[in-house]
Design brief:
259 residues; alpha/beta; nine-stranded mixed sheet; 4 helices; binds 2-acetamido-2-deoxy-beta-D-glucopyranose; transmembrane helix; transmembrane
Length: 259
Amino acid sequence: MVAQQAAAAFITGLLAFAILANCNTEGDILYAQRMAWQDPKNVLKSWDPTFDNPCPWEHVTCDNENYVIRMDLGKAGIIGPLVPQLGELKKLQYLELFGNGLNGSIPTTLGNLSNLVNFDLQENMLTGTIPASLGSISTLVNLRLYGNKLTGPIPPSLGNLTNLVTMDLQKNALSGSIPASLGNIETLRSLNLNGNVLTGMVPSEIVSLASVRNLSLNVENNNLTGTVTSAGLRGANEHVTCRLSRLVLWLGLALAALF
Ligand SMILES: *[C@@H]1O[C@H](CO)[C@@H](O)[C@H](O)[C@H]1NC(C)=O
Ligand SMILES: *[C@@H]1O[C@H](CO)[C@@H](O)[C@H](O)[C@H]1NC(C)=O
Ligand SMILES: *[C@@H]1O[C@H](CO)[C@@H](O)[C@H](O)[C@H]1NC(C)=O
Ligand SMILES: *[C@@H]1O[C@H](CO)[C@@H](O)[C@H](O)[C@H]1NC(C)=O
Ligand SMILES: *[C@@H]1O[C@H](CO)[C@@H](O)[C@H](O)[C@H]1NC(C)=O
């Protein structure tokens, strides 16, 4: 009995120590990211791993429980990959890393950022595919990946982002067809897919979103083909036939003008 109690006390102590020793998880994640980056402008010099937490560091914002809610490193001159551990910043709302020299692929673990609102990785040198896991970030409002070197298809799972307002994927090398599931995003106001190598037709679900919800849709400079039929338009011009390779649809404006 006594031996068992002593063992239990010892294990409890060990656990407590392990938890205390691991109390700067968010700082450890950011420090791992700092180590993976080249930082020629020395913007990360305040990211000192001996601090109790990363909240005093520059370009980082925390909530009142010391969880990181923002990373603001737009146009900071940083070069290198995103580390998979970034997906563990569970309260992160703003990931602002636009206009740097980020390379490598977008880690699938970023789909675990379940509080993310702004995902701004535009104008970097990212390669690889858009992870399907990003479709599980239900809080996402703005997804900006334009101006990278992303390849492969647009994941149909992005249609699960039912709070999304902006999706900007232009100027990459995305291929395949435009997923009809994007037509599920009733909140969407701007969909920019121009400057890729997308093929097939613009799904009628998306055309209808454009006419009913005032979505601004840009699919110029792709390899799209075919005829768009817009169920959302009334009157004689039920069929909108377009040369989709040179198409900018402002159907919302057109509809507003009709009424
Ligand atoms: C990212 O860029 C750096 C600096 O040019 C280079 O050393 C590194 O190999 C690149 N990584 C990838 C995955 O392209
Ligand atoms: C994070 O995402 C990856 C890949 O999507 C998954 O395998 C992993 O279980 C997730 N981790 C957590 C802590 O949710
Ligand atoms: C997300 O979308 C995909 C493809 O559209 C679907 O198969 C999947 O069940 C959806 N997941 C969730 C969690 O809604
Ligand atoms: C539709 O969107 C455009 C561009 O965002 C905006 O200028 C216009 O006022 C909107 N029209 C309506 C009817 O909401
Ligand atoms: C896109 O279309 C152009 C012109 O028709 C063609 O040369 C090119 O090979 C096509 N690209 C893809 C990826 O299909």
